[in-house]
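User: I'll paste a sequence; please echo it back and then give the predicted structure.

Assistant: Echoing your sequence first, then the prediction.
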Amino acid sequence: MSKRVLFFIYILISAIKVTAQEDTATLQIKNVLDNWHKAAATANFEAYFDKMTDDSVFIGTDATENWQNKAFKTFSKPYFDQGKAWSFKAVERNIYVNKAEDFAWFDELLDTEMKLCRGSGVLKKVNGNWKIAHYVLSIAIPNEKVSEVVQLKKETDSLLTIKLAK
């Protein structure tokens, strides 16, 4: 075989190996996120929080919801104790993994009780396992409805802005 053919085979095998590694990390992350959402839907408190880092942050849809892990556990526990926390199902998801495969970020479109929402976040590897370090949930608002929503939240947002400025 010529050096050129051997070089081509080497490049091809290297590309397949890199793609397989990326696919493995992406699949692992997809499974973590799917199982995290499933744990909430089935009220499995331990499984839900096991998928988050100890210093994780969950930012909810309300402007006041910036939960550090411990506070989010306290807030969430009564919902889980009732037998169903919340139900989010990803209908679209994009996952991005760094080259070292120890850090990833994602965005997802979710079907929820609040209708379409957007989730985005960061995962990192902790002891070989992907964990959610940061998650942001937002309600997806069609552009043509933004003016109506702004009017609905105008007073509440104004009061909160004043309170936060102090």
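Residues 17-21 have pLDDT under 50 and may be disordered. Helices lie at 3-41, 45-50, 69-81, 146-165.
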